[in-house]
Design goal:
2 domains, 7 helices
Amino acid sequence: MGFSGWPERAFGFYEGLEADNSKTYWTAHRAVYDNDVLAPMEALLTELAGEFGDGKVFRPYRDVRFSADKSPYKTAIGATLSDGGYVHLSADGLAVALGYHLMAPDQLARYRHAVAEDVTGEQLRHVIAEVEGQGIDVVGEEPLKTAPRGYSKDHPRADLLRNKGLIAWQEWPVDPWIHTAKAKARIVKHLRTARPLQDWLDDRVGPSDRS
């Protein structure tokens, strides 16, 4: 069956899970998760695979071993695409992202070197401006308070040097189109529009050598 959006029951499921994050609730509503949350996500990933790579859905269970919050279930479903991309659904609506989330130390070193260089650094500045001009936010993740060690705090791209991750992010509240195949069109538009950011990161940073 092809992707036709997420029904209202999907968002109701997560509203209920936020109110009662328990095995009792999960067990009672597992069919809703399987049929109305997970199945549409898997159908979407299948349709996106040809252009954006294979999809992977994250497990719905939280890792609580080192967390003070012992709630057993995630209150959102998330999935990644192997060629770049992240899709997120929760009670609040739909979100899509593209880029590098919290880079490893070797990636950070390459990222900062490329940002510091005038040609590649200004290329990134231009890419960000173009993506943001299309209504997509480009967000620096876990930024340092000042430029990292070895770089002047007065560097013209100190704002970019401070980032530990860089993603293009877009989110939408629950609107009628989310319950239809039009949701796929929104996701595809984001991934295509933000692709220059992913390309810059792939070319200048790439995967971690330590993974």
